[in-house]
Amino acid sequence: MRGFEDKWFKLTEDGFLEYYEIKPSFISVDTDVPANQIPSYISGFGMKEGGLFGRRWERRYFVLSDYGFQYYTSENLASLAPDNDDCTFRVITNSGETHILRSSQLMDRQKWIDAILETQKRVNEEMRPFGGKPKVRGEWALGKTTSTKEDARVSSNKFSKAVGDKPGNLEWSEIVATNQTKAEIVEPEDTIAYTKQTCLCVAAIDFGSSDSGCAFSLRSAYDLNPLNIQTEPLGDKGSATRKSPTIVLMTPAGQFAAFGDIAQQQYEELALDEKDKEWFYFRRFKMQLYTKKGLDKNMMLEDINGREMKASDVFACCIEYIKNKVFKRAEEAVRGLKEEQVHWMITVPAIWNESARQFMREAAAKAGINQELLTLVLEPEAAAVYCKYVEINRNKTGEVAHLEVFKPGSQFLIVDLGGGTVDITCNEVTETKQLLEIYHASGGPWGGNMINKRIWKLIRSIFGNTFFDQYMKEHTYAQLELLKAIEEGKMKIRPGAKGVFKLPFEMSDNTNITSTAGEILPDKIYINPENISVVFESSIKQVCSHLLKVLARDETRNVKALLLVGGYASCEMLKETIKTRFDEYDIICPLIPEMIVLKGAVIMGHESRPIIGRLARFHYGLAVPSGLKMIQKMETPHVRTEFNNELNFLPLIVKGTPIRIGEEVAQYSFIVTSEELTDIQIGILTCEDDAAPSSIAENNCTQIGQIEAKIPALCKLTEVRIIVSCDETDFKVTAVIEELGHRFSARCLFLH
User: Fold this and answer.
1) Closest C-alpha to 206, from 68, 32, 323
2) Domains (ranges, CATH) in the chain?
3) Which of 8, 502, 504, 717 could pair with 68 in a Cys bridge, judged by C-beta atoms 3.0 to 4.6 Å apart?
4) pLDDT of 127-147, one tens digit each?
């Protein structure tokens, strides 16, 4: 951009300006020169001091005329600009269509500027500079109106709609860039871009495998008392201190009908009227995000009758219902509260992989939650944060005391015993009372639902498999009642005691059935202690074995306490067994363990950084994409490690190393070898081995996703730097074009 030679620009439909060294063919020239693209920063490009291709450049002034997009170094545009009769404002699209912009009114002409700037803003949203929302500011003036008439093709696209005039006698307007115009697009003074730290309210959704709940607190209330948290029941029967079952009822047309207890009640009524087979009834479906291999956006869920629906639709409608429920309650507490003033927290298991977490993010977006106002919360961490603030019963003396385990330097295990998964994390309290993970999250699918399935199977065998299956098929209502009875009954069973479960009324007629496993009475079934012990054995054994394995690590040798949270922690059989087997530790059991994660998530929404670091569960690395070469890892500003083999495993994070929240993880510099390359795709891989792999061809390397960065095609041998950081529960990636100094946000995609 030196000198005063003519440059030829074309505004493309994707919001870029293409520039040409000589007059291109679409302006009646035979020679068509391949275009280089630069970002269409119409409002600021060329009008402020900056750098281009490493060269410093001064303020430039632009005129869009019949002869192209011309620039000048002098501010006296009146003497340099073409005569009005020669000036027209036209936009040429990728396909070569010419759109003539005209209006005799200043306000109408302003619409054209707004339309162009809106296009630019859309592109900026796709390639947002890392760290914030782009602000569009421009210095534009409108030239005088002329009366030149000319035939033109006027498209019915966004531009022609902006004015709304029909082709005919055309009046042309030019746009001249000066430093004196007032046509700016800025945020109104009364508009605030709310962040996690400035939102007026924090709302949390604990979307569980068995049960779900929601809660919120106002920032003003939190400042006075962090435990001043309002829980909102999700059903008519639900208590504000309890959660509702994760059940959703959908109409035959696939529309949302009800959630939780209400959904179960309505479905029971449909079953009594024999209309249930036409409706969709989903329960305990969250676990499929953990168990499903190759999770993708098109994953289907199967309901209780075997009918399928797209999983993202089911999750989204549930989240939307809960979101609306809690927001309505918060709105009653704060008159005039807006959705953009609420920061949302959604809980996820710590052992979930990246694709499952991204699935929940996209479901939340589909439910209407702004991604800028959403944080995913790891369930055990939320529980730990909440327990810092409360007085809890200690297991040995029964005394109520402030938890000693949360003194700086102390270490503890959070054992989140949910319906689907058991999550175990080990944390240390820092001097600032923040939490630092000292052993990576682990666990497995050993939650309370595992017990439910085994009890169901045992009752089925007592009644006889053939009879039981046929009966449940014909009596949906009885099936629902028995499922509910099993969930409630299992929590009360103590070691050495019988299991007592309420039977649906219709099943009580079969009292003549005899079994060594149990006894059937008119309204209940009693299961013998030895059989109940077998039911719980597998789940409890796997939980305890895993705890022993974690506590045997060098990293956990200073752990003094185990905190049991989650709905399954209310199970007396499990709780008593853990207390007996781990009697050398303080076993801490909150009074209402199923609510701890939910309330902790609310508190985490108010705290700026409650968790300062985690440990990597795997080796993370990158795969070299085609079209790039000379890959270098930026160890320090002056030290680089070079990789030249396309099979190289480019180390990103080493297994077991600390990952500081909000800090940079790694930088890589790539050289673009093709000017046609505008979409960079870099594979993200993991490896569970103790030693990091050197090649992506090794057996234990698995690609879990990819980084996608959309950059303008500038020229060959362009250096692009990829910066990876960890933010809350997600990776954040920035692409930097070294020659321009421009930073673009890239995307990490873990769903196909």
Assistant:
1) 323
2) 8-177 (no CATH), 201-367 (3.30.420.40), 381-445+536-613 (3.30.420.40), 448-530 (no CATH), 616-749 (2.60.34)
3) 8
4) 333 333 333 323 222 232 233
